[in-house]
Design brief:
With 521 residues, this protein is α+β, with helices and mostly antiparallel strands. Helix content is 23%, strand content 33%. It is built from 12 helices and 28 strands. The strands form 7 sheets. Strands 5-4-3-8-7-6 form a 6-stranded mixed sheet, covered by helices on one side.
């Protein structure tokens, strides 16, 4: 065949030699193999060349059992869960310098199971290195880390003296109830914002959060600014200083005041505020409080969202709060307009005839009012509302509104249910709050217990209120023991509940199972 000519076809009858890969014999064991620069097979190469030589097989890591963080030398502490990517990154950093010195590259790493109480963390590394004239060899290498328990600086100060705090967040709201703090407590638990607090103490009008670091307190303040309209002031006090090294130690105080407007409050807007808000009101209901206040005109279904900075311009107060709600009986309901959805909530204008429950058997006073609850109320239902007809209010804006316009005698707020369940299939977690029993007023404990029960009732009635918090399954709930009066009584769907599992419970169950297995054997 001439050079450069095409090879003969398969069916041309010409002899075509088969092309085979060249092989050589291993210089050590004589096995046929593909040629390589070392002239050794893979088995002989691994037996005579160890790329893991010099790579440590044992190391140590420092762990703080109080805050679940690991020491990152020289002084940083990083939080990481068991067998998490964060923990894997912390452990691999301890091996970074030995691998770089030996010119060994890391192609992969994974955890190897170890007993939780063994104080050992095991890794399997996949190492790669170039050996003998360009041959790349890959090999696995086990590394065992011994976990040494040691408290970090902030936890050590807290253990020695809980009052050795560095920063405190003083959360306050000047209202006659604690409904806002009950809701904020659930938000803090869900997002873990209070987990780094040394302690949480109850105070008149709010809560105090003590931290061992200023950054932890600042993070809590930033979170509160995203879920509530707040006003913040900061201050610091010099504790000690070193004139030679110019090190100053301060105690920081963050004073956080929450806007005194709460959900379901009735507000009378001043003429200037009503005009600036596009003719809203003058009577409006607060329907939602996040980092802005949602104001609803129950007579026109207009909604306006007022931010905290804009609120400070008018600085209005609540004319009537939820503690002044009166129960009414709905005698008749007549829809005025079709049902509409505003900001995810449904409303319908309607005319309703209502009578106060306290007037039954005394007089025949009936009120015909306009309400935004036409889609929820039916004749015979109970409703909670504000009694403007017989209320004694000390509010200048309300007096001006009554003189300026013909306002309704009743503002209905929500549907009410006469009977409640004695037990619930769900429960809430609580923060470990320290109470000052010496300064607690008489009857304060009963009043707080009543407010907590009303908060649980609100969660059952309002699905929007449950979206931002976690509800857990109540293991003590028994359906046959629960009170099930009223078919229309709202309930929390079981799909919204979360299993309340703790590591301690799992360990106890495993120990019991192991003991039972040993007895069987």
């Amino acid at each position: 065949m001439m050079p450069g000519s095409a090879p003969p076809a398969a069916g041309s009858g010409m002899f075509v030699p088969t092309q085979t890969a060249g092989t050589v014999l291993c210089c050590m064991c004589g096995v046929s193999m593909q040629p390589n620069p070392a002239n050794m097979c893979a088995r002989c190469l691994r037996a005579r060349v160890d790329i893991t030589e010099g790579v440590p097989r044992n190391a140590a890591v420092v762990y703080c059992p109080d805050c679940f963080s690991y020491l990152q030398p020289p002084r940083s502490w990083l939080r990481a869960g068991p067998e998490s990517p964060e923990l894997l990154q912390i452990l691999l950093r301890r091996l970074k310098h030995p691998l770089a010195r030996l010119r060994v590259s890391l192609s992969g790493a994974e955890f190897v199971f170890s007993e939780p109480h063994s104080k050992r963390l095991r890794l399997k590394l996949h190492l790669r290195r170039e050996v003998l004239n360009g041959i790349v060899l890959e090999q696995t290498h086990p590394v065992e880390f011994v976990v040494h328990d040691r408290l970090c600086d902030s936890c050590a100060r807290a253990q020695a003296n809980p009052d050795q705090w560095v920063a405190v967040v003083q959360l306050r709201q000047h209202v006659p109830h604690r409904r806002t703090f009950l809701y904020l407590e659930q938000l803090l638990i869900k997002h873990g914002q209070a987990a780094l607090a040394i302690r949480v103490a109850s105070a008149p009008g709010g809560l105090d959060f003590f931290f061992g670091s200023r950054s932890h307190a600042a993070r809590l303040v930033d979170f509160l600014g995203t879920v509530a309209p707040i006003q913040t002031n900061t201050a610091k006090q010099l504790v000690s200083h070193d004139t030679k090294s110019f090190i100053y130690n301060y105690k920081y105080t963050f004073s956080v005041e929450i806007c005194p407007i709460c959900r379901e409050d009735l507000i009378a807007l001043s003429p200037k505020a009503s005009r600036d808000l596009g003719g809203l009101g003058p009577l409006v209901l607060c329907t939602k409080v996040t980092n802005a206040i949602a104001l609803l005109d129950p007579l026109t279904l207009r909604v306006h969202h007022l931010e905290e900075k804009k609120y400070r311009v008018y600085n209005f107060k609540a004319a009537l709060t939820s503690k002044q709600l009166v129960q009414y009986m709905v005698l008749d309901i007549e829809p005025e307009s079709p049902e509409i959805t505003i900001d995810g909530s449904r409303y319908q204008l309607a005319y309703a005839q209502v009578a106060r429950m306290s007037d039954f058997g005394k007089n025949d006073t009936v009120f015909t009012v306009r309400t935004h609850l036409g889609h929820r109320l039916n004749p015979g239902d109970l409703a909670l509302g504000y009694d403007l007809y017989g209320a004694n209010m000390n509010d200048d804006d309300m007096d001006k509104a009554l003189l300026r316009q013909n306002l309704p005698e009743v503002i209905l707020v929500k549907k009410s249910y006469e009977k409640r369940r004695r037990t619930r299939r769900w429960k809430l977690k609580r923060l470990p709050v320290e109470e000052d029993l010496g300064n607690k007023a008489k009857g304060e404990e009963d009043r707080r217990e009543d407010e907590y029960k009303k908060f649980l009732d609100d969660l059952e009635l309002d699905p929007d209120l449950r979206l931002a918090i976690n509800l857990y399954k109540n293991e003590d709930y028994r359906s046959e023991m629960a009170s099930t009066v009223g078919d229309d009584l709202p309930t929390v769907p079981i799909e919204e509940l979360i299993e309340d599992l703790t590591l301690g419970d799992d360990e106890e169950e495993e120990e019991e199972d192991g003991a039972d297995a040993g007895m069987v054997e």
